[in-house]
Amino acid sequence: MRNPVLGYLLLAPTVILLGVLVGWPLIEAVVLSFNQFHPLTRQPNFVGLRNYAEILTEEEFWNAFKNNFIWLAGSLVLQISLGVALALMLNRSFPGRGLARTLILFPYLLPVVVAALIWQWMLDPLNGVINAGIEGFGLPAVDWLGEMPEAMIAVITVGSWRAFPFVVIAVLARLQSIPAELYEAAEVDGASAWGRFWDVTMPQLGNVLFVVVLLRAIWDFREFDLLFLMTGGGPLSGTTTLPLLVYKEAFEVFQTGRAQAIAVVMLLVMAVLIAFYFALSRRGGTIDEA
Amino acid sequence: MRRGNFLTRLIWGLFVWSVVGTLGFPLFWMLSTAFKPPTEIFVSPPTLIPVSPTLDNFVRVLNETRFVTYFWNSLVVATATTALTITVSTLGAHAMVSFRIRGREMVGKVILLAYLLPSTAILIPIYLIIARLGLTNTRFGLVVAYTSLFLPFALWLMRAFMSGIPREIEAAAVIDGASRMRAFIDVVLPQAVPGIITTGVFSFILCWNEYLYALVMINNDDIRTLPTGVMGTLITGYSIEWGMVMAAAVMMSLPLLFVFLFLQRSLVAGFGAGAVKG
Amino acid sequence: MSVGNKRPTGGQRDISRRTVIKGAAAGSALAASGLFTPAISQGRTKLNVFTLQRAPLQMEAYAKMVASFEAAHPDIEVDMLPVSQTDLWPKLAASYAGGDVPDLVLQVTAENIVSLYGQGLLEPLTDVVKEIGEDDFEESARNLYFDKGEYFAVPASNNCVSLLWYRTDLLDQAGLAPPKTWSDFIAMAKALTGNGMYGASMPYGQAAMANSITWTLIYEAGGLVIAPDMSVVFNDEPTYKMLEFMKEIHEYVPPGANRYDFFDVLNAYVMGTAASCMYTGRAIVNVNTENPAIADSIACTPFPIPTGGVPWWSGAFEGIVMPKAGKNYEAAKQFAAWNFKPEEYIAFINATPGHQIPTLKSILNSQAYRSDPLLQKYPEALQTTIDTLAKANATCKPFDDFPLILKAGEIQGSGIFAETLQRVVIGGETPQKAAAWGQDRIARLMRT
């Protein structure tokens, strides 16, 4: 369109802010990753690729890498299945549906700190309501956040509990826009309820699930607050994911350079994953870019 | 037939409500604990509904901690960040969508990349920048940091919304003789309201909840925000009074629930649309 | 799908549009009123002070100390920020990066003080020590912070984590004497475990307390972490012995101990979940305020020493330090000295009676200090604490003739100790393997 000057003018704040607040820190992050840098004395010392060579040969990095994927895969599977199931339930009418639709979104709105506190209180090994329930059935108390793999199971559960409403919202919005004629046609063709779900609903959801998985994967891959507040990465390093390892290296052992090197690797991993995901889903043909 | 239909609906309703109830239990438990006196909190087996409900926990949080100060700080920081990101991203998204200008694809890609950045990765560099700007330990410093975190997301969302607005409307206004800017304000902006609300609420929620940057960047108790303030004063390492903690949790969640309930209709539509569009 | 399809109807749109515009206006007003308020008030020197002792009662005492100081120095304003042991280094790192370094840090434990000193970050406080009276300070505390003719910290107080608190009623019932050795302790813990009671409360969480007591237990077992020539000697028999001990006693700790830090360790004892715990004199005040039912059955003994070990006890030797990068040396020194004004000093120390022991001899022996009702109530516990501290050393200078371990704070803050412990206790690794890992990581830390 005409008047490109105005366009540039409107875009200018975006470009400037992105440059100063994202571009510059990013460059600085990469530069720091080639240095050794103590945050208190603050004298950078160029070490070339040593930080990268070190982290890639140490068990801590690969352990965090592995944990990151366990956490990511576990959370995605749980929150997506929970979210889709709930959306399907809430799409059919039943008494009090409006209220249920509102209530179900609350976990998503809670501050992370609040979610972490509630669950820590519920998971408390001595006084928590969950262990009280378990012991009510005559089973032994579980130290949910102090043992592995219990701690990983607990954080995945809490993470998914926080995130599933997002899936519900997105899927529900899509479900409501599926034309009723499609179902009617399927019914005329004699398709069962199950058949209608697979043949009509699922293909329609493909698009939205693709975006939801992508978004949730990005958010969950880099999740810091919840894991930090719930377990601090422990026990052992059982729930230490890459973002937590970055924090530990930077603020517990003061290896700012190594921390930034991990962050850069993390960024590359995410970029590769996303490219891979796009390529895969294009070939599979589950999305048409409508 | 009719009766059977009703029965099915009832059974279905009970089933769905039991699922919803299970998923909502943590929230119920937060409320329940917040209203329990200290003596009732450690009763075994726990009481589901407080036997002797009390408002003590809430009163103590308000009187004995700096909850109100933290609340105010959170409000200021979240509001300012939201105002800033909304303004910038609305203008930016409009420019990218309806002006055929050089480099807009490039900007789009940069936004996606920025959006992927883990916040831990640029924590230290951002802090160094804020220090150079002389903004450490100010609310504005946090606003700047949060803008760096949320602007890419806001841009992404706003661009999705803006590209859903039929261009013909704006074109018609321009042909009518209104200037581009007037057309934007009078025609495009009203259309973008649901997007602006969604993006705004998202940004507000994210600011209200943010923990890591607030933890590292604020060293002054006068300007701490709720998440770090509440964690710092109620989880002191010397005592955890779960009743007070849960009361504080309820109070810091309320604004978000309130905003949400108030704007629910346009939000749900917006959430869905923004997320689905991509 | 496009957004346009979901457009609300006209009426609603107008409402939401107006709401948004109003909201934006209110927002900018709100932002403008609060946003740019700087943390500096006009014409007054503002002191930023961190404190690491920050229990509510202590913060109250500090508030009074600040009030009396500000009344006497109208041109100075003190802003006190409580900082947790675990957050100290991240907070310091951030404040250094931002050039907004605290003017004073109160109640820093010895290993952190020594590390700050080792990095060359501290301004000497010799004149403050001299002003208060060099000779009045307890010798071991004073000597710890004296180097190259200057005091790099003011010894503020001391507390003794090398105490074992136990329940006299439960020990009497079981016919046991307070344990003297690690094996006594394990036997006692075993005997007292059962029926919802756990024998001992010890820290296994990846947090400050497990990191801090690791040194202590290794020294007790006759070992060292860092040799006098600053080589790392963590991977050795005494470390294995310490790890084995912690693993054995783990059988008798409450569920959840894998996450225990200072507070949790004490709380399990205070609430009657555990029959004993390793802790400072803070047990006195916490039992009396939170579970007075057991107040007549608590007592402490110096922490047990393993058979064939070294009688070694640890003191925290908390001190006041002044970062070089601070901006207000004079005001900071005045406030540092104000901490020792008898009335304020005793009020702070006795905010948690028995937990912190004065480093000033004149105060320690004063009637004003000793007249606290809780100290009167537990004279033996107070005497045990004072006697144990008299023999105690700091983990960063384990023996009188030992050089300062200048990386002690980094080693302790790194979490390597706690992780080594968890590898053995939770992960089931052999002590040898875990200690080898720890040795390697500590060595890397020493290099940088």
Give a short summary of the structure.
The complex is a heterotrimer of chains A (290), B (278) and C (448). Chain A has 13 helices and two strands; from the N terminus they run αββαααααααααααα.
What structural keywords apply?
heterotrimer, A: 290 residues, mainly alpha, 2 strands, disordered C terminus, C: 448 residues, alpha+beta, 3-stranded antiparallel sheet, 21 helices, 48% helix
Question: Please, could you describe this protein's structure?
Answer:
The complex is a heterotrimer of chains A (290), B (278) and C (448). Chain A is mainly alpha-helical. Chain A contains 13 helices and 2 strands, in the order αββαααααααααααα. A two-stranded antiparallel sheet of chain A has the order 1-2. In chain A, a hairpin with an 8-residue loop joins strand 1 (35-36) and strand 2 (45-46). The longest helix of chain A is centred in the first third of the chain and has 33 residues, at 59-91. Chain B is 79% helix and 0% strand. Chain B has 12 helices and no strands. Chain B has helices at 2-34, 38-41, 56-64, 67-98, 104-116, 119-132, 139-162, 167-175, 180-209, 212-217, 226-234, 242-277. In chain B, helix 4 packs parallel to helix 7. Chain B is globular and about 70 Å long. With 448 residues, chain C is of the alpha+beta class. In chain C, strands 1, 2, 3, 4, 7, 11 and 12 form a 7-stranded mixed β-sheet that branches. In chain C, helix 2 (56-72) links the parallel strand 1 and strand 2. In chain C, helix 5 (126-132) runs parallel beside helix 13 (329-338). Chain C starts with 9 loop residues before the first helix and ends with a helix. In chain C, 54% of the residues are buried.
What is the C-alpha radius of gyration of chain B, as a whole number of Å? 23 Å
How much strand of chain B? Answer: under 5%
Strand order of the largest sheet of chain A: 1-2
Question: What is the distance, rounded to the nearest whole angstrom, between the alpha carbons of the first and last residues of chain B?
Answer: 44 Å
Largest sheet of chain A at a glance?
Answer: 2 strands, antiparallel
